[in-house]
Amino acid sequence: MHENEIAKIVLDICFDIHRKLGPGLLESVYEEVLCYELAQRGLSFSRQKPVPVYWKGVKMEIGFRTDVIVEDKVIVELKSVENMSPVFPKIVLTYLRMTGLKLALLLNFHNVLFKDGITRLVSGL
């Protein structure tokens, strides 16, 4: 499955979640429901996957965690914040670079209209 197909499925699920649950819940609630729906559709995913950081060819003992990676192709970073910091998209672009993946969705559920909380980020797609 291509990254864009995966992203469409994720967005369809998230629109439905936002429509039914509404804005303002904890990020962990949206993550749990998203992963449930991904499993119902037979998509593979990993939650809170640790990603190591390499410095000068050496694996550091500390790294970062992605919220969800779908089909080992698309990073999904979830937020539920009133104001999106301008650094959030830059952080997700760093995640793409460090994982070698090409597409990420940064999704903020704390909006009246879910479409206003969608940021699509690409690296080499």
Produce the secondary structure layout.
Blueprint: H1 3-21, H2 27-40, E1 45-55, E2 58-70, E3 74-79, H3 87-99, E4 103-108, E5 118-122
Parallel strand pairs: 3-4
Antiparallel strand pairs: 1-2, 2-3, 4-5
Helix pairs in contact: 1-2
* Helix-strand string: HHEEEHEE
* Gap between N and C termini: 14 Å
Mean pLDDT: 94
- Evaluate the radius of gyration: 14 Å
Strand order of the largest sheet: 1-2-3-4-5
Number of domains: 1
Largest sheet, strands/sense/barrel: 5 strands, mixed
Query: What share of residues is helical?
Result: 25-40%
Question: What would your notes on this structure say?
Answer:
- The chain has 125 residues and is an alpha+beta fold.
- It has one domain (3-122): Endonuclease, Chain A.
- It is built from three helices and five strands; from the N terminus they run ααβββαββ.
- A five-stranded mixed β-sheet has the order 1-2-3-4-5.
- A hairpin with a 3-residue loop joins strand 2 (58-70) and strand 3.
- Helix 1 (3-21) crosses helix 2.
- The model has no long low-confidence stretch (mean pLDDT 94).
Structure in a nutshell:
The chain is an alpha+beta fold and 125 residues long.
Question: What attributes does this structure have?
Answer:
125 residues, alpha+beta, Endonuclease, Chain A, five-stranded mixed beta sheet, 3 helices, 5 strands, globular
